[in-house]
Amino acid sequence: MDRAAAAPPVSIDTINPKVLKCQYAVRGAIVSHAQRLQQELQTSQGSLPFDEILYCNIGNPQSLGQQPITFFREVLALCDHPALLGKSNIDALFSKDAIGRAQKILDLIPGRATGAYSHSQGIKGLRDAIAAGIAIRDGFPANADDIFLTDGASPGVHMMMQLLIRSENDGILCPIPQYPLYSASIALHGGSLVPYYLDEATGWGLEISDVKKQLEDAQSKGITVRALVVINPGNPTGQVLAEENQKKIVEFCKNEGLVLLADEVYQENVYVDNKKFNSFKKIARSMGYGEEDLYLVSFQSISKGYHGECGKRGGYMEVTGFSAEVREQFYKVASVNLCSNISGQIIASLVMNPPKVGDESYKSFIAEKNGILSSLARRAKALEDAFNSLEGVTCNKAEGAMYLFPRLHLPQKAIDAAKAVIAAPDTLYARRLLDATGIVVVPGSGFGQVPGTWHVRCTILPQEDKIPAIISRLKAFHEAFMDEFRD
Amino acid sequence: MDRAAAAPPVSIDTINPKVLKCQYAVRGAIVSHAQRLQQELQTSQGSLPFDEILYCNIGNPQSLGQQPITFFREVLALCDHPALLGKSNIDALFSKDAIGRAQKILDLIPGRATGAYSHSQGIKGLRDAIAAGIAIRDGFPANADDIFLTDGASPGVHMMMQLLIRSENDGILCPIPQYPLYSASIALHGGSLVPYYLDEATGWGLEISDVKKQLEDAQSKGITVRALVVINPGNPTGQVLAEENQKKIVEFCKNEGLVLLADEVYQENVYVDNKKFNSFKKIARSMGYGEEDLYLVSFQSISKGYHGECGKRGGYMEVTGFSAEVREQFYKVASVNLCSNISGQIIASLVMNPPKVGDESYKSFIAEKNGILSSLARRAKALEDAFNSLEGVTCNKAEGAMYLFPRLHLPQKAIDAAKAVIAAPDTLYARRLLDATGIVVVPGSGFGQVPGTWHVRCTILPQEDKIPAIISRLKAFHEAFMDEFRD
C-alpha cells in the first residue's frame, strides 16, 4: 500500500480502543459461525447433520415464525399509504377500528406527513397517547414531555450512558448476568461497569445488601457510581422482581443519588400467576416519591411483548426526576439524530393503546395476543423441563422475558478441552451444540456469570410444533457430549 | 432535595462535558422559539403578525407539503401488511409493479418477516439491490458486503466518528460552512474539528491548497488528522463539485492516508445543466484507484433527493478500502444496535432501484419525480433572486442540495444591537425575521463561517404557491430591518 505516512493507517491498532473493548455476544462469533453454516445448508443440502439453523440466540420472535399482530400492521399500512383511506372498497380489506385509528393518528401528525421528521422526542400526539397508556398501566399520571421515542430501546440506553459517563472513573451498577447492550454501551462510552450479582440459588434474586457492598467497593476504588441498571423481567435470567424488592431498589437509588435505569422491555412477558409486572415508576410513586426524589428512566420497546416488532425499531424512554437544564441536554442529543422512525413511533403508540373492549378488532386482537403469550408460557415450561432433565444441568424458571439461562455443571474434562482450544467452556458447549444440532445459543460468558460457573442463554421462541424435535436434538447432543467428557 | 451525597446530583456540571460542548443549530434556540410561537398561534389566533410558521430551517420536504412518491408508499404498505397480497381486489388499489416489487422484497427477507431484526448490515437481498443500483449509477461494481444500512445518514456518520476518534488529538477535516451533524458528532466523540474554508467568492469552491495548509497547521499542533469530510452537493452551501476538483480531493486523501467521508445524500438534487453529480467512488475508480488505494465511505439517505422520506429514517453507507479486521469492528458496532429499521431499508432499496421503463408505474413515477425536482429548481432560483434583490445581501446559486446560504452584509448598528443582547448578528437577524414573518431560518454561526461574515441558511422547500408571499414578507422585513439599523 503506498499511502503516505502523515496519518497512521486505519487498523485495529489505530481505531478507538473503546470500540475494540466493546463485546456483544448476542451477535458474536457463534452467530457468525451459524450464518456460515446456513449458507452451507443452502449451497449443499444434506452436508450437515441437520437441515435448518434455529436461532435461539436472540429475542427475535418473527424470525422464528411468530406472526405480527394484525391490527398493528393494518394501522401501519394505512399510515404508510394514506391514499388507501380514500378508496371505496377499503372496508373489505381493513377492520373498521384500524381505519379509525389510522385516521386519528394521521390527524395527530402535522400535515398528516408520515414522511416528515417529527419533533426530536417524537410526534406530540403519539407521546400523549403513550403517556395515557402509562397512566392506565400504573395508576399514576404520566407526561408526554417526559417521553422520548427511540429506534428500539438500545439508542435510549446509549443516550443515557453518553450523558452520564465522563470517564472511566464513572461507574454504572449492572446486574451479572446482564444483557450485553449494557456492558457494550458502557465500554463504548468509556465508563466502568460495576457488577452486582444476581443469586441463582434464589431464582436470580437481587439482594440490595450485595448491591450496596459493590457500590461501596467501587467508591473505595475512586469510582463515582452514577446509575443502577435493573432489568425486570430479567434478561437473560427471566426472573420477575417482587414488589418488596423493587421498593428496596427505589429506596437505595434515592438514598445514594443514583439514576435508576429500569429496563422494562419485557413488561408484557410474564408467564407465572404468582408474579406481576410493576413499573418502577408505579413503585416509586406508590411509596410517595415524586419527581424531586428519584432520577428514573424507564425503557420500553416494541420488539418484545406479545407483538415482537423487532424490525420496526420502536420504543421509548420515560425520563423523570431531572432538572430542566439537564433535560435540555437530553433533547439536544436527541435532536442531533433528528427523530426516531415514524413507523416505530406509531407502533409504540399502539402497544401502549391496543384495541379496547367494543372495538371491532378487540376479540381477534385478544385472541392473537393471548395465543402468543400462552404459547410462550408453554414453550418456556417445556424447555425448562428439558434442560432440567439433562445430566449436570439446572435451570431456573422463566417467570418472564424470553429466555432460559441454564447452568451447565461441566465435567473437568470438558473444561480442559475448552482450555486446549482457548475457549470458555460454555463457548465450547455452544459451538458443539450448534455443529451437532443447528441450535444457536449464546454462551453465558457473553452475559457475565459468577466465576467458575457456566451457562448458556436460550430463547423460548421457536414455534411450538418444533419444540419436541428441538428437545430431542438437545438431549441427544447433551448425552453424547457428556459421554465424551464425563469424568 | 434530600438525596445523599454519595453520588453527585445529575446537573449540567456533572454530565459528560462532551455533551455540553455539542451544538446543533438546525434544531436549536430559534427553532424552539418557533415551536412556542406555533403554540401561541394555535391557542390565540391573530395574536401574531402572521398566521403560520414556515419551517425553512431543516431539509424536511414532506413537513411543508411535498407528497411522498406513490410507488414507494405502495410497496411499503404491502410489505407492512403482507396479508393484503392474498386479497382478491388488491389490483384495484395498488399498481401491478408495486405488487410485484413487494412480493420480490418479501421473498428476499428470511421468512418474509418484516418484523424481525435483520442482519446487522441490513437484509442481504436489499443490499444486493442497492449494490446493483450503485453499479448502474457509477459504471463500476459495488458489493453488498460493503453496504451498511442505517436509520438515515446520521447514525452512519456517528459510527465512523466513534471508530476513528480516540481523543482530542485526533482531528477530522470539515468544510466551513458545514452541516452541524459533523461538528456535533466530533464534539460528542471528543475529537477535534479541523476546519477548511469554502470560498464564497468562487461559488463556495474547495481549494485543495487550503485544505493542505489546514492539515499541516493541525499536524504542527500535534493533531493526528484521520479523515476529510466532503459534502457534495454542499450543505448549507449548495455547490456541486466539478470532476477535476473531486480528483484532487481523492489524490489528496490517498496521499495523506485520510479516510474520505463523502456525504452524498443530495446526489439526486442537482438543479443546473452544467453540473452533474459524480460519486467519489466513481471518481476514484475512474482514476484507476481500487480498494487498496483509498479509505472511502459514501453516505446516502432516503431523507433527501426527490422523495424526501425523512420520517422513515433510512440510508446506507458504502464502506471501501478497509482491512477485514477493521470491517469486523464496523460490524460489531452495528450489531450492538441490532439493525436499522426495515421500512427504511426497503425504501433505501427502492431509491436505488426505482421503477424502470415498461413498468406500470414508470410514467407516473417519472412525472412525480420530475415534477418535484423541476419545482425545486424553480424555487431555488426564485429565492436566490429574492435574496440577491435585498439591500446588502449576496447569495450564491443553489446548484444542488436544498438550501440557500445568503451572506448578510449587516450595518454596524445591527452588529452593535446584537452585541448588546449577547447574540451573534445573524442570530439577531434570524430571530427578528421569525418574530416578524414566521419564517424560520438558521443563523450561519450554526454552520461556521469566515469570522466577521454573517449568513443564514434557508431551505428551498416551501411549496411553490407560497413562494411569492414568502418573498414579499422577506422583503418587507428586510427593508424594515435595514431602516432600523442602516448606518
UniProtKB/TrEMBL annotation, chains A, B:
- Pathway listed: Photosynthesis; C4 acid pathway; Amino-acid degradation; L-alanine degradation via transaminase pathway; pyruvate from L-alanine: step 1/1
Q: Which cofactor does it need?
A: pyridoxal 5'-phosphate
Catalytic reaction list? L-alanine + 2-oxoglutarate = pyruvate + L-glutamate
Q: Which residues form the Aminotransferase class I/classII large domain?
A: 108-464
Sample GO molecular function, one term: L-alanine:2-oxoglutarate aminotransferase activity
E.C. number, please?
2.6.1.2
One GO biological process term is: L-alanine catabolic process
Keywords attached to this entry: Aminotransferase, Pyridoxal phosphate, Transferase
Matching entries from Pfam families are given as: Aminotran_1_2 (PF00155)
Task: List the SUPFAM superfamilies hit by this protein, alphabetically.
Answer: PLP-dependent transferases
Q: What is known about what this protein does?
A: Transfer of C3 units between the cytosol of mesophyll and bundle sheath cells to maintain a nitrogen-carbon balance in the C4-dicarboxylic pathway.
The text of the family note is: Belongs to the class-I pyridoxal-phosphate-dependent aminotransferase family. Alanine aminotransferase subfamily.
This protein's assembly is summarised as: Homodimer.
Q: What protein does this entry describe?
A: Alanine aminotransferase 2
User: What organism is this sequence from?
Assistant: Musa acuminata subsp. malaccensis (Wild banana)
